Amino acid sequence: MASTIPTEVNIIIAGAAWIDPKTGLRQDAAHVLIRPLNDSRTTNLQILTENDVVRILFNASKHSTGVEILSRQNPSTTPAIKARRQVVLSSGAFGSPTILERSGVGKIRPNKKDLASFSTEMKEPWKKKFVGLEDKPLALVLLASIYFGDHADAPGQYFSLGTALAHPHSRGSVHVSSKELKDPAFDGGFFRESVDVEVLVWTYK
After folding, report:
1. pTM for the full model?
2. 86: closest CA among 108, 109, 59?
3. Residue 54 has pLDDT above 80, yes or no
């Protein structure tokens, strides 16, 4: 079977740098949005540290009404914080799905039949992704003044080149193992599909 991997590199892009043009300092959501609000004398913003979200609370109409939290200083109680208007869930790639599962949204853990269906539904054939779409990026070549390897073996000066798949076929998963606050079961699924390895080998060549 002939390979359908492109044989040329035809694009170079510049990565965005989140730097304040006036101060030259790095920017992030905490410094640009949260800290100025928290420092304002007229803000209604309240930040709770040392607390973990156990689950989102829903009413009979399945509308979110608040969150249940667990204090690390007093883990014997799980108080609820009620929302007047809406609940915004923003806990990252690992935190958000596990909070949803503890809240009853989705299954605690998919069974073998579920996994088989996910594999069929989520992975599009290679030809549907790339054939006829010559401008669609296949992989990214990363050049950076950082060391991608083990820092214990890093030389005095270094410059690294690495590759990353733009549209990997392999799929991983993250699920909670119970309704309690425990580390989630994470499966990266790296290189589960051999075509991903083939693409990376091509980019290195």
Report:
1. 0.58
2. 59
3. yes
- CA dihedral (83, 104, 102, 111) in degrees, to 10, reads -160
According to DSSP, residue 14 is labeled: P
Distances (CA, A) of 100 to 21, 117, 175, 201: 38, 21, 10, 37
> How many other β-carbons are positioned within 10 Å of the β-carbon of residue 139?
20
Q: Is 70 exceeded by the pLDDT of residue 203?
A: yes
Residue 144 has pLDDT above 80, yes or no: no
Residue 186 phi/psi, 5-degree rounding, is -115, 130
pLDDT classification of 59: cutoffs 50, 70, 90: very high
Q: Which two tokens stand for residue 90?
A: 């923003």
Looking at residues 85-90, what average pLDDT do you find? 91
Q: How many other C-beta atoms are found inside a 10 Å radius of the C-beta of residue 20?
A: 11
Helix/strand/coil for 73 = coil
Judge contact between 90 and 42, C-beta under 8 A: no
CA angle, 95 as apex, 18 and 146 as ends, to 5°?
A: 40
Alpha-carbon distance of 187 to 150, in angstroms, equals: 22
Read off the pLDDT of each residue in 185-199 and give the average, rounded to a whole number. 84
